[in-house]
Write a structure and sequence with these properties.
Length: 119
Amino acid sequence: MRLLYILTALAFLGCGASKKDEESAKKPTPEVPAPTPEAPSVFASEINPILEKSCGGCHSPGAKHTPFVGDEALTQATGDGIAARITTSDPKLYMPPARAREPLTSEETQKLLQFLGKS
């Protein structure tokens, strides 16, 4: 019975919000403005066109491999793999493969690496 009393008391003590929690709840959360047609995101204006040109044959929605073309979040999530494949010197691993699409220019490679935070 004494144990039940102690556990109940601890539960009540642990449920209260701290002063810091109350203060942070009062602060408004800044909103990130959505891209407008006048100011498209960097992904839409610079990165996705590169991906469509060089990767779209195999990596678009409905294609046989991970469909990151057109999907900014998925492009970011698979960024380590993309960065490794566009910078490798191994022709068997390099993307895009020579038979599939145009190779990336050095400028396009740098833009992709910068976007992925790998430059």
